[in-house]
Every structure is written in structure tokens, then in C-alpha cells.
Amino acid sequence: xxxxxxxxxxxxxxxxxxxxxxxxxxxxxxxxxxxxxxxxxxxxxxxxxxxxxxxxxxxxxxxxxxxxxxxxxxxxxxxxxxxxxxxxxxxxxx
Length: 94
Description:
Blueprint lengths: L3 E4 L1 H17 L1 H16 L28 E4 L9 H9 L2
Parallel strand pairs: 1-2
Protein name: Type II toxin-antitoxin system RelE/ParE family toxin
InterPro entries: RelE/ParE_toxin, RelE/ParE_toxin_dom_sf
Pfam families: ParE_toxin
């Protein structure tokens, strides 16, 4: 069974921030780019294991859902060139 895809508030805010940033640079491309990112997230319902597995961490993980889940939760939308470890650690800090 394909998982449902749900965007958390922070992921929706990330998309809005991405749109605002791109809109300032290139208004004609902003909407289509953000739509493409959203579409890629929604495609997880069809291809939930398409992401690379990260085995170099104490707990191997994918930043996408694994088989057997009924819901894929999009928690964040982060540029891959950023320090994801630091961003995710900060998000868990009190």
C-alpha cells in the first residue's frame, strides 16, 4: 500500500520561504520550482524507497519513508548542501 504524504508545518514554511527567496530572484521560475519540489515530495506515495540510505551515522537512516509505513511525513525541506546534521540537531534541542 502506498503511503499518504503529509507536510508538517515546518516543511510548509520551508516551501513558503523557498518561494519567497526564489521569487525575489526570478518571479517567473519561483512558482514552477516550488511546485516541482512539492511534486517530488508527493511522489513518495509511489516510490517511498527512492532515497539513498545514509549508513555513516550511528543509526542509519533515509530522509524519506521506508516500506510498511502508512504515512510519509515531510518534516523539513532542506537544501542538500546545508549541514543537515546541525539543522536536525537544532530542531530537536529544547
